[in-house]
Design goal:
The structure holds 2 protein chains of 2 kinds. Chain A is mainly alpha-helical. Chain A is 76% helix and 2% strand. In chain A, α3 crosses α18, α6 packs antiparallel against α8 and α10 (240-265) packs antiparallel against α13. The termini of chain B are far apart. Classes of the chains: A mainly alpha, B mainly alpha. Chains A and B meet through α5, α6 and α9 of A and α3 and α4 of B.
Chain lengths: 491, 130
């Protein structure tokens, strides 16, 4: 069998529909099938990534229609890197959630797994598609499954969070359609490479109008301020493994879509400055809001928005080193935030309290999970022995190269805010006394394996960053080299 | 008696303006409903109206005066120049299906919200705040 990029999307989608049938025959199929499929996605990455790195990119034609007319899938080193990361982290989250789902209140395991598989399939689709309308369809797949998963627990807040998310997501999709329509009338194409080729001929006013629509629509998906009010609600109300998927997979896909459109499709001056400013505002507002939170998951969600803001700043700087740092940070954020949600949800589960007060002195009951959470917290702040240090370090150096002194000061100040609320949380875990008696739920063995694997990744990459910097440099090159993207797809 | 196509040609600019104007009016009316109405069902209706507006806009963009269906058939090879653009129509079909799914989901969420809160007023449903 020949492995091609289309399998990334087809395998999870097929699995999502097969689960419904298979679980009629064998009850546990709903739990096992997603693991097999995500493992298969990792295998696809292992087979395809060497080819991608050798050839520059792989372009896959769907249904025999050549690139400008049909839909094509593109695996560049950048998108390939992200699909690999998404598959590996998706697999870890599946492993983590394998036993967790037994305790779901209300819903059934199979519905949860079907929605989760479709969400991952949609995110992978957003990352590898080369067609603007196809990207819209995948964003809608991610959106609809994400709304449903947010409302998965049948209590009142879930429905409220989900409705907010649905409302803002639908507005995003309408703006996205407007942008696509303007682009289509001006260039007569939906293929990203062809649009990019014809973009210099488009009048400036049309270009800017379309870009504004895209920035609003994709800004909502990429959690950019001020369109990110849905995120903390959705993160905190969704089932715990889903919160991890939101942070690690969906936000990555959103940022990728935003960056692909602004970097490759459009050639408007000033969009980089816009990304820097909005990224900075996003980061500042999110981190300050995070300090004020009393609910652990909401705090993590706001921290997630802050990290996405930093990613946008780094992409906005736009030099090779900055883009390199941004992709590194996307990877780090996906791994570390998934880890924080994984360990954090064990705290919540053990303390019968979603608030931070529930963490008091929890290290006595959950020593392993506490250690993992602390390592992840230090890593996301950017302490040296962990991988989070390198991404922030490279972004700061890139900002220094461009003489953006105020940006460096801003990022460091926001890091101090980050330091405050993460250290406060870690201090609660280790140094506060807890008077109340609690029920005890030890983490299951699969969850321990999944969390240890991701923790090991943070530490190994923190000590030997050279293991992945080669890939990251190629990914950054491929994002910045617009001409070869166009040339390769249109031949 | 004028043929329909004659009337159409006489007023074609007016009709084009009317179609685009209707589409944009629908989007604005829908946006108004989404942003300013307090009732959950009215918000959902606003979303649907916006969807209709954008779909109409898509179809209008692909339309050609006096065009034919974009199907090649024997004896009509010369018609290619008069064929309407099929791409926006394909896009609209997809967008309609997606809009349908989102509306269905929105209504089911509204039912659940109503069951929990016994009200459909969005101001009274505020358990989640910043």
């Amino acid at each position: 069998m020949v492995i091609s990029p289309v399998h990334y999307i087809v395998a999870p989608l097929l699995a999502a529909f097969a689960i419904a049938l298979l679980s009629k025959i064998y009850k546990n199929a709903a739990r096992i099938v997603p693991g097999i499929v995500l493992f298969y996605n990792i295998v696809i990455s292992l087979v395809l990534m060497p080819q991608v790195l050798e050839k520059g990119m792989i372009s896959e034609v769907i249904a025999g229609w050549e690139a400008p007319w049909g839909i094509n899938l593109v695996l560049t080193p950048f998108s390939g890197f992200l699909t690999t990361a998404v598959s590996v982290i998706g697999f870890a989250i599946w492993l983590y959630g394998y036993k967790f789902k037994v305790r779901l209140q209300g819903g059934e395991v199979k519905y949860y797994e079907i929605l989760q598989m479709m969400m991952i399939a949609g995110s992978l689709g957003v990352i590898i598609t080369g067609d603007l309308f196809n990207m819209f369809v995948f964003i809608e797949i991610v959106g609809i499954t994400a709304y449903s998963l947010t409302a998965f627990y049948r209590h009142r807040d879930g429905a409220e969070a989900s409705f907010k998310y649905l409302l803002i997501g639908s507005l995003a999709s309408i703006f996205l359609l407007m942008g696509i329509l303007i682009i289509y009338t001006q260039t007569g194409s939906l293929n990203m490479a062809q649009i990019a080729e014809r973009m210099p001929m488009v009048p400036q006013t049309m270009k800017v109008t379309a870009l504004i629509f895209f920035l609003i629509a994709l800004g909502i998906e990429a959690e950019m301020f001020p369109m990110n009010g849905w995120a903390p609600d959705a993160y905190s109300q969704a089932p715990s493994p889903t919160s991890a998927v939101f942070a690690a997979v969906v936000s990555v896909a959103g940022v990728y879509a935003l960056i692909r459109v602004t970097f490759t499709v459009f050639d408007v001056e000033g969009v980089h400055q816009y990304l820097i400013v909005m990224g900075f505002v996003t980061m500042l507002v999110a981190e300050i809001s995070a300090v004020a939170q009393v609910n652990l998951k909401r705090m993590l969600a706001y921290s997630s928005l802050g990290q996405m803001g930093l990613v946008l700043i780094a992409f906005g700087i736009g030099s090779h080193l900055a883009v390199f740092g941004a992709i590194f940070l996307m990877l780090n954020h996906a791994v570390i935030k998934a880890l924080l949600f994984m360990s954090g949800s064990y705290f919540i589960y053990n303390s019968d309290d979603k608030r931070l007060i529930g963490l008091n002195g929890i290290h006595k009951r959950l020593p392993f999970v506490s250690a993992i959470f602390s390592i992840a917290a230090f890593a996301i702040i950017g302490f040296p022995p962990f991988s989070g240090f390198w991404s922030k370090f490279y972004i700061l150096i890139a900002a220094g190269d461009e003489n953006m002194i105020f940006l460096i000061i801003g990022i460091l100040m926001v890091t101090i805010i980050e330091l405050v609320y993460y250290l406060r949380t870690v201090a609660r875990i280790y140094f506060y006394k807890d008077e109340v008696e609690h029920t005890e739920h030890k983490p299951s063995i699969n969850a321990i394996v999944a969390m240890s694997f991701l923790t090991l990744f943070i530490i190994v990459i923190g000590i030997y960053p050279n293991l992945i910097t080669g890939y990251l440099h190629q990914a950054a090159d491929s994002l910045l080299d617009k001409a070869s993207y166009i040339q390769h797809i249109l031949k | 008696m004028m043929e329909f196509s004659e009337i159409f040609f006489k007023y074609k600019d007016l009709i084009t303006v009317a179609v685009y104007g209707t589409a944009i009016m629908l989007i604005i009316i829908g946006l108004y409903g989404v942003l300013l109405k307090k009732h959950l069902v009215k918000i959902a209706i606003g979303l649907t109206i916006m969807d209709s507006g954008i779909n109409l806009l898509f179809v209008a963009v692909g339309y050609i005066q006096n065009g034919t269906a974009p199907i090649f058939s024997p004896g009509h090879e010369g018609d290619a120049i008069r064929m309407v653009d099929p791409v926006p129509q394909a896009l609209v079909l997809t967008a309609i299906v997606i809009g349908f799914a989102v509306t269905a989901l929105a209504l089911s969420l509204i039912i659940r919200l109503y069951k929990h809160h016994h009200t459909a007023n969005i101001d009274q449903i505020n358990s989640l705040k910043w």
